[in-house]
Write a structure and sequence with these properties.
Blueprint (H helix, E strand, L loop, with lengths): L1 E3 L5 E3 L30
Antiparallel strand pairs: 1-2
Length: 42
């Protein structure tokens, strides 16, 4: 999968299944690394 970011750069992933990050907490943005799960809920 290939994604073009806002600044015009292109990132690719060769994985079979990918998820796009919508929370912007991922260390691998734009790919989701489940960083959103670390947030404590109150």
């Amino acid at each position: 999968m290939e994604v073009e970011l806002e600044d015009g750069t292109t990132v690719t992933s060769d994985r079979f299944r990918v998820a796009l990050c919508t929370c912007r907490r991922s260390r691998r943005y734009p790919w989701c690394d489940t960083s959103h799960r670390d947030r404590t809920q109150g």
